[in-house]
Write a structure and sequence with these properties.
This protein has 15 helices and 15 strands. With 395 residues, the chain is α/β, with parallel strands linked by helices. It has two domains: 6-176, Rossmann fold, CATH 3.40.50; 188-378, 3-Layer(aba) Sandwich (Rossmann fold), CATH 3.40.50. The strands form three sheets. A six-stranded parallel β-sheet has the order 3-4-2-1-5-6. It starts with 14 loop residues before the first strand and ends with a helix. The model has no long low-confidence stretch (mean pLDDT 96). The protein binds adenosine monophosphate (AMP).
C-alpha cells in the first residue's frame, strides 16, 4: 500500500498531532549545539499551519531518560527555538499526559503545543497501548516526520497509528528520506559504489551483506578494514580487530561477492592515537603499530572509483577522524564525493558530522538525518516499523 503524504490532505480546522525527532545535542548549559534536526522539520510544520490546521500538537523524545522526568532532557530549549523560528507562541506542557492538555486544546489563542519529552514515560518505548491511545486522543490526524526514530516500535511512532486509520500521514522529511534511500536501494544507477567505515564489522554485517547484492564496488576503510585484512592473512599490528569480526570478515570473503570488496593498500599508523602519524608503504601494519586512517594511495584509489560512480552511499569514517592526525582519509572521501556528479547519500552520525564539519553537506544529494534508521532501512530492504505502520496501518 502506498504511504499517504501530507501534500494532498485537507488540514482545515483539524487538530494535528505530529511526531518529530527533536533529539538535538545540548551543551552542559542546556543550549542546543546543532539545530539541524529541528530545522529539518520546519517545512512540515509551516505547511500544516498554512493549510489551516486549528491546533498543532508536537511530540518528540530527547536523550535517554529512563522512563522518568529529568530536567536535563526537557524539551524546553526546543520550545524556545521553535517559537523563535516560527514567530508563534509554543506552549510546552508539563508532561505529555498532562490533564491540562484537553483545556489547552479548547483555547483559540493556543496554536502550537509541544508535549514534554515522551521518554519521561516508560510506556513510550514499551509501545504501551493505553499510552498511545491517550496521545491519539488529542488530535484528529497523525503526522509522522521522525525519520530518526522510524526504526523504533514505540507508542508515538508505531502504536499510535491504530487510532488514525486513513488519517496517518508522512511529513516532508520522511518523504525525502524514503525517496533518497529507495533510489539507492531499489533503483541505483550503475556503477554503484558504497563506502563503509567505522569501528565494528559486527554492527554492519547485515548492511554489508545487503549492499553486496547491488553494489559494483564496496570500499572499506576505518577500523572495519583490519578484520578483513587479517582474514586475508595480513599483519594488522595493534589495530582494533576483534576475533569475532575476523570470523565475520572471513565468511564474507568466502562468498562470490568478495571480488567487489576493496581494502586499503596503505595506512596511516602510530604507536597510539596521541602519537605522530606514519604512512606504511603497503597493506601490512607493523607489529608495534596501530592503523588509524587509510593511507594516501588508498585515498587516491578510492577517490578515483568514486569519480566514476553514478550512485554513492557512504557510511562511517575512514579513520580516527576526531584526531587531526588521522582525519585526512575521512575528509578526503567527503571531498571526493562532493566533487562527483553521482547521486550521493551520506548516512550515519559520524560521516554526517564529517561532511558538516567540512562544509560539504550541500554538495551531497542527500544527507540523512537518521543514523541508525538509514542503516536499518537499507538492511531491511526498505522497511522500518514506523514506516510500515504508515503504509499498512496496525490493529
Ligand atoms: P561507527 O560508530 O562504527 O561508525 O564508528 C565510528 C568510530 O570509529 C569513530 O569514533 C572513529 O573515530 C572510529 N574509528 C574509525 N577508524 C578507526 C581506527 N582505524 N582506529 C580507531 N578508531 C577508529
Amino acid at each position: 500500500m502506498a504511504i499517504k503524504y501530507i501534500n494532498d490532505f485537507e488540514f482545515e480546522g483539524k487538530k494535528v498531532i505530529c511526531r518529530f525527532d527533536f533529539n538535538v545535542p545540548l551543551d552542559k548549559d542546556g543550549k542546543i549545539t546543532d539545530t539541524t534536526r529541528i530545522d529539518s522539520t520546519l517545512e512540515t510544520i509551516k505547511f500544516i499551519l498554512e493549510k489551516g490546521a486549528s491546533k498543532l500538537i508536537l511530540m518528540s523524545h530527547l536523550g535517554r531518560p529512563k522512563g522518568a522526568p529529568e530536567k536535563k532532557y526537557s524539551l524546553e530549549p526546543v520550545a524556545s527555538y521553535l517559537a523563535d523560528k516560527l514567530g508563534v507562541e509554543v506552549v510546552l506542557t508539563e508532561s505529555c499526559l498532562d490533564r491540562g492538555i484537553k483545556t489547552l486544546l479548547t483555547l483559540p489563542e493556543t496554536k502550537i503545543i509541544l508535549l514534554e519529552n515522551l521518554r519521561f514515560h516508560a510506556e513510550e518505548e514499551a509501545n504501551d497501548h493505553e499510552f498511545a491511545k491517550r496521545l491519539a486522543s488529542y488530535a484528529d490526524v497523525y503526522v509522522n516526520d521522525a525519520f530518526g526514530t522510524a526504526h523504533r516500535k514505540h507508542a508515538s511512532t508505531y502504536g499510535i497509528n491504530a487510532a488514525f486509520k486513513g488519517k496517518a500521514l508522512a511529513g516532508f522529511l520522511l518523504q525525502k528520506e524514503i525517496a533518497a534511500l529507495d533510489q539507492v536501494l531499489k533503483t541505483p544507477k550503475k556503477p554503484f559504489v558504497a563506502v563503509m567505515g567505522g569501528a565494528k564489522v559486527a554492527d554492519k554485517i547485515k548492511i554489508i551483506e545487503e549492499l553486496l547484492r547491488s553494489v559494483d564496488s564496496l570500499l572499506i576503510g576505518g577500523a572495519m578494514a583490519y578484520p578483513f585484512l587479517k582474514a586475508r592473512g595480513l599483519e594488522v599490528g595493534k589495530s582494533l580487530c576483534s576475533a569475532e569480526d575476523v570470523k565475520l570478515a572471513k565468511a564474507i570473503l568466502a562468498t562470490g561477492a568478495a571480488s567487489k570488496i576493496r581494502l586499503p593498500i596503505d595506512h596511516i599508523v602510530s604507536t597510539n592515537p596521541d602519537s605522530e602519524a606514519n604512512t606504511t608503504n603497503n597493506e601490512s601494519i607493523p607489529e608495534e603499530m596501530m592503523g588509524l586512517d587509510i593511507g594516501p594511495a588508498t585515498l587516491d584509489s578510492y577517490a578515483h572509483t568514486i569519480a566514476g560512480a553514478a550512485t554513492i552511499l557512504w557510511n562511517g569514517p575512514m579513520g580516527f577522524f576526531e584526531k587531526f592526525n588521522f582525519n585526512k582519509g575521512t575528509f578526503g572521501i567527503a571531498k571526493a564525493i562532493a566533487s562527483s556528479k553521482a547521486f550521493s547519500v551520506v548516512g550515519g552520525g559520524d560521516s554526517v558530522a564529517a561532511v558538516n564539519e567540512a562544509g560539504l553537506a550541500d554538495q551531497m544529494s542527500h544527507v540523512s538525518t537518521g543514523g541508525g534508521a538509514s542503516l536499518e532501512y537499507i538492511e531491511n530492504g526498505g522497511s522500518l516499523p514506523g514506516i510500515q505502520a504508515l503504509r499498512f496501518g496496525i490493529n
